[in-house]
Structure formats: C-alpha cells, structure tokens
Amino acid sequence: MSAIPILKERQKQIYEKGEGSVPFDLQCEKQSVAGSVSQRACVFCGSRVVLYPVADALHVVHGPPGCAVYTWDIRGSLSSGPELHRLSFSTDLTETDIIYGGEKKLYHIVNDLIDTYHPNAAFIYSTCIIGVIGDDVGAVCKRVEAEKGIPVIPVHSEGFKGTKKDGYRAACEALFSLIGSGSTEGISPRSINILGEFNIGGEAWIIKKYYERMGLQVVSVMTGDGRVDEIRRAHGAALNVVQCSGSMTTLAKMMKETYGIPFIRVSYFGLEDMSSALYDVAKHFPDAPELMERARALVRDEIQAITPELKAYREDLRGKKAAIYVGGAFKAFSLVKALRYLGMEIALVGSQTGNPDDYRQLEEMCDAGTVIVDDANPLELSKYALEKDIDLMIGGVKERPIAYKLGIGFCDHNHERKLPLAGYVGMVNFAKEVHASVTCPIWKLSPRRSKGRVPGMIRM
Questions:
Q1: Which of 34, 295, 365, 418 is the most buried (most CB within 10 A)?
Q2: What pTM, to 2 d.p., does this model score?
Q3: Pairing label, strands 409-412, 392-395
C-alpha cells in the first residue's frame, strides 16, 4: 500500500488551503504536462462544443472519422425546430488524402451536403491532421460560399496548436464573422443577447422565459437552440449577458470593441447566482425601473415555490463532502454556493480552463482544507477523492468512471446531460440528483467504506 503520487511538474497547479499553507500562487493557463492524461479536451473539441447547438447550420469535420465520432451529439442541446446540428459529417480522410491533400474532397463533400440539406450556413472544422498537411480550408470555404450563396465559415481548430481554450476562441471568431450581416429592424432598446448558454436539457428556454417575463427582448442565444439569422442580427442588442465566461468572453469583447455593446458575466446555477443574473441585467436599464420590480417579483415567487422541497433534501445532505471538477471556473463558483446551500462541504474544486483571477476567487470562497486544482488528471482526482473521503463527485463524462470505480456518488454537470440544472427549476433538479446519488445505499458496500480501509491509499 502506498500513497498516490503527484507528478513533480504538476505540484504548482495544486493548492490545499489551510493554516500554515504557503501563499496562494496557483499556476494555470499552461499546456498540459506530457504523460499526465489531462481531463482537458482538444482545440477541435472546444470549438465544437460552442458551435454545435446552432441547429440550422451544417457542421462538417475535415479530418479522419474519429474526430467526428468523438464529438457526435456532444451536447444535450435541444432544438425547437431543425436538428441538422445532431448530424456529424466527416470528410473521412484516408492515407491517400493525407499524402496528396484533401481540399478537392472537402469541396465536393460540402457542395453535396449543402445541396442535400439546404442549411442557412456551414461551419467547416479543421482537425489536427489539417494543421499538419496544410489544406487551405479558408480558400475552399470562400469558393463554396460564392457558389452557394450562404456563409461557409472555416473554424481554425487544429488540435496541435493549443488547448480547449483556443478552440473556444476559434468558435468565437467563427460566430463573429456572422454577426453584423443581418438587419436590426424591430430590436428593442431593452434587449439582450444570451452568450454561453447551450440549451442543455432545455435550459436556454427556461432562462429566456425569465428575461421575457421581466420585459426584455432576447435577440439571440449563442448558441443554445441557435439560428443563423438570429446570430447575424445580434449586433443590434443593447447588452450581452455572458454565462459561460471561458467560452464566450472573447466574443463579448469583440462585440464591445466593434459594436460598442457592453457585457456582464452571470451564472444561472443555484438560487443566489440565478437571482443575481436577473438583478444585474435589470440594473443595466436604469431608465426602466419596472424591470427590477418584475425581477424581484419573479425571484420571490420562484424561491417560495421550491424552498420546502430543497429544505427536505438539505436535512439528509448536511455535512456530506463533495468534489467539483468542471470545464470553466465560473461554473465552479455557482456549484460551491449551491452545494453549501444544501448543507454540503467542499473538499476539492478545480477546472480545465480557469485563469488566475478565477482561482483567487475560489481560494477566497473555500474553507480550510479544500484542495484547488487546475487541469487535473485521473490519478490526482482519485487521490484527493480518497484522502478527503468524499461522498459526491461533480463533473462530466470523463469524471464519471473515476467516481464509480471508487464507489462514490456522481452528478453530471457537463454538456452530455439531458436534465436542466439551470434556473430555479434546475436547482430543484440538481438537489434531487445530488440527494439520490449521495444517499444511495449501494455506496455502503464500497471497499473504501469497509472496515479497516485507509482513505487515500491504493495498491500500486
């Protein structure tokens, strides 16, 4: 029996808060350490998760079929109409294409797909191999766009050039090429764009309804249940409301610089942050005090309706320990608050793409003993899950098997889920799922819970 080790190169990206700790100086925004099997996704995947929910656009992956398979139906993003986004097309590059180039193949495939599906736009994603062989995807896109009369947009998401964050930037640049090409006629001065909301399980519909109840016009949602024509006229909105700051702040800054549209960062997870998201938007329109009045009434009514059910869950969850590992650190803030509201303690919190300001804020929020980690790997997550003897892990599809193999309850808070966890109804769903996972009697049979088991030790 021996303790799980931490790679020397990773030690400065892990911090445990407590008395006598070294000054907080967590390193982040670095390339993943070779051999650490990072939980991060690649550049291409980062671009796909942002653009995928645009439902009336064609999405073509230029590369081997594995890349398209990896990101097929990657988000639980629902559509109120077309579902073209749920089809994952690949140019299926072979060894011959890689040797002689795949531009001709790409040209013919995109033409055929446009003729077959009649999309309102097409996104063409470059993968790792395209960065190696040098296909001019941009030139092919310009040619097809001129011939077909719809936007055909290259997404420069070659995997070798960076991290998932670089994929977010590539997606923002692709979206920005659409913005400004549509009419702003009929847009109210009290209007917003919702950025970074991907309609997982229908969450964009919930949030959009809240803002409309306040009296605001939602011009576009980028990109949940997204439509090309709505994105094209997004420059007419008065305010950008950014939910997933890691993926969409770049686009918000571009729109501010070019069109003068201010933006604010919000979160729709948990009672406190959901309410703040409504209040902060209302504050942006001081000439319309009725917006704040409606927001307060909405918050009061929604919280009153769900408080009794949440109180019942809180009684069983009090004192239980949770580990949080998500893509963006801004989501982690909300999860810390939501779990504390349910009476739980935070043993570990980390993200794939957090920046120094994010981690400083997490350090201030967390209690002594909490482990804060950037760009974790499976061994690190396993180590601290065992040492802290956690009862629940919150993450995504790659963290689920870690939790189950260790005999720990799990809550999927990533983009693969089908259940809405945003908004007030989402808080109820979240509490219900956490409660069911943590109190499931099967965990009592876990080897780590058996007599004589030493938390934090495994056979090596």
A1: 295
A2: 0.91
A3: parallel
